[in-house]
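User: Second chain of the day. Same drill as before.
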Amino acid sequence: METGGNSLPSGADGVKRKVCYFYDPEVGNYYYGQGHPMKPHRIRMTHALLAHYGLLQHMQVHKPFPARDRDLCRFHADDYVNFLRSVTPETQQDQLRQLKRFNVGEDCPVFDGLYSFCQTSAGGSVGSAVKLNHGLCDIAINWAGGLHHAKKCEASGFCYVNDIVLGILELLKQHQRVLYVDIDIHHGDGVEEAFYTTDRVMTVSFHKFGDYFPGTGDIRDIGYSKGKYYALNVPLDDGIDDESYHYLFKPIIGKVMEVFNPGAVVLQCGADSLSGDRLGCFNLSVKGHGECVRFLRSFNVPLLLVGGGGYTIRNVARCWCYETGVALGMEIENQMPRHEYYEYFGPEYTLHVSPSNMENKNTPRHLEEIRNKLLDNLSMIQHSPSVQFQERPPDTELPEADEDEDEDDGDKTWGSDSDMGVDEDRKFIPKRVKREVIEPDTKDPGDRKGTVEQARGSVTDETGVNVSPMAIDEPTMKPK
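Assistant: Same format as last time:
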């Protein structure tokens, strides 16, 4: 679906961007349960803002192809995926042993459509990576992704399937090095753990540290074996504001881009680091949070943006709408247009909200110590690591949309009057959904002849041929 989605120039780099945006209109219907802070409805609210701000017409808009079992098993264990597919609210009492084994129950409840939700989240991130790999866009967005706590064999922190790891694995088919940056208030432990022993993926996490979930992410955790110095952790304290955050973010990420030289970047934009979050304790503004997106965009490297945490949902929608505008290189008005969720944003009815006057417990001296320590760690990387390939896995093909569906679908974009973001009781209109889907892997398994580095935890397809672009070791660290 071509929409002429090249964006406006951004800053000094002056390069236009083409943006792909993945959205499933059913995603807002999933419900973790009464009182649970994770509300997928926030993604639908974000989409409504994008529609009424007129941003959708500047992007390629895709409905993600649901990730299949074998796609999820490129990282997750078979028995864990089988459990997620089979468990239901009605049958969970008969599977108590497995619920405990896979850490499903309280923070990660069983709800109606759980597996479909996981397929949608993962499908959007893998589909985004496919688009970037094929050079069909410069920036890809999946706000339903970013579930960074999920482990190979267990759910954690409201996350069941790690769409980020799956997206990075797809990017590694095309790129020798991938950078992962996490600005959620919680440590990106699941992604770090997955790539802790490799120099092909660098993980950088900015997070609250100290008596805070998941308890990992000490500045001394730097990676292991080949991955030593390829994990960076930036431990922060309560009340950090925009100025203090960027004092660390910009020099550290600037140095990372220089020494690691990634072929692609994944940025997890968890919005629970915003001021006033229901579960958070930072004091970032929407603009301050979005400045991280703007800074990474300026390097002109293929960029995948995913969602993550965020529990004051009106502010999550504000943030991800603004950051979509940043990706496009478009400045959008502060005064919010009227739309179906307008009442959520009162009494200001604006895109931006002022940070609070909470105390910033991050002293200038402590910030300087963190910055110097991490820059010293980066100096241990003398040059971009070399990667030896025999044959890399085949590129994932883009399936063609069904011709009849294309003929039926007259809408190439969703305009400001889109009813894709409607309230809970209204029905979606299928014709308004662009039928193009991105299937994560369509090659015949029998065509896979390549060999890649073998290691513990790597996943094979039905033929027994290892199709991982790199080895994933068994978890080397556990959250406290």
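The longest helix spans residues 114-133.

User: Great, on to the next one.
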